[in-house]
Design a protein that fits this description.
Length: 101
Amino acid sequence: MRIKKHPILEFKHTRLVPFTFDGKTLYGYEGEPIIAALHDNGVRVLRTSLKLNRPRGLFCAIGHCASCFMIVNGKPNTRVCIEPLREGDVIETQHGKGEFK
């Protein structure tokens, strides 16, 4: 799912780093948005809605909506579309409003 070659854009990847998503070890490129690493690993559901508990995925990708809220390193309501991936990040699916651990 990752674009490797593009006729106009250049993609420079940093080093591949491990991170944890809902207890599973996955890999992504350090510094890329967390959503890019998750998407490349097949993750499409990022959280569930508050009232009806429906799945939410990537929507705006610029940090303005709440569709990509996840728990990152124990901090809920983190917008993973703009949060850079760091080695060892612990990312969890957020259900509802999210609460600090």
